[in-house]
Amino acid sequence: MSQSAALVAVALAAAWFCAFLGAHVIGWRAGRGNAQWLVRCYAASILGMLISVTACTAGSGLCIVLALMTSGCLFVVYVPAVYTVLTSLSVQTLILLGRAGGALPEAELYARFSGRPIVADRLATLAASGYLTHEQERFRLTIRGRMIAALFARLKELWKLGAGG
Amino acid sequence: MKAICLASLMTVVLFLGVTLAFRLAPSAHRVRRMTAIYGICGVILTVLWLASPDDLGILPRSWLVAPAWFDLVLALFFFSAAYFGGVLQLYNLADRGFSLRMLIDALESPDGAIDVDRVLASYSAGQGMRWMYDKRMHGMLEQEVVHRAGGSIVLTAKGERAADLFIAIRNFLRLDDRP
Lengths: 165, 179
Known about the structure:
The complex is a heterodimer. By secondary structure, chain A is mainly alpha-helical.
């Protein structure tokens, strides 16, 4: 392989990832649905990356694999950061405190973050995401939800994490 | 390709190392321990890369990355991503995932179902929602982003900087402008 082909492939992967980031943020600002928009943007960036890497490196298999690995690695580091901003209760607590001038009664924080509305909201989100089905006020696992729950239950057991949550 | 082979191998070693550490010597500071194991594995990966032939004795020439130094950079990058985006996130989800714990509670529930009242009372195998937020509060107090003052929770200087950053990000992304 030429001295620069791998560098070019990785640079193209990084550039396409930046394009994905830009599109994701623009969509977010425009109010697009989070998970669906994330996946669509990323899929489009992968397609663009594959075309440009194939064209610039004469279809080198190694370059395509390196580009896919680079993009995949950037994605797995980016997604947790996104969900931290979106869903972390600790982050939401800091934000609430920041907007309230830096202090709030402890009872108010507990009422907000361990009360009925936040549980109802999270159960509804899980149902909308296809992990739970809704029967009146009760929620049951879907096949997808059962698989995820079973997988992590086994991981918790393997790592002896206790109940956690 | 050597980068991918060695980084993958070291990720398996890291996972096994973390598993052994968690099972054989439980500690309250699991993330610190995981990160120490990641650091040790990173050093081993570098030594292994320097000590092994470019083709690992099995790779065809067309699958060798040039220049060679770039292969080492990629190996360290792939391995770091596998830790920060993979193993560490698995741990965060398994140990702290709020939604995930609800799914596991549903899985472990005798009738296979949960509702708001049950989650409130017995979230996380019977501990309840107050315990869940106690855990977050304890973490924030330990990280010194907040402190207690009378009956209130108050941001520290460090917490204020973090809050400002998150507020700026949420404002920029217009996350709070939605219905």
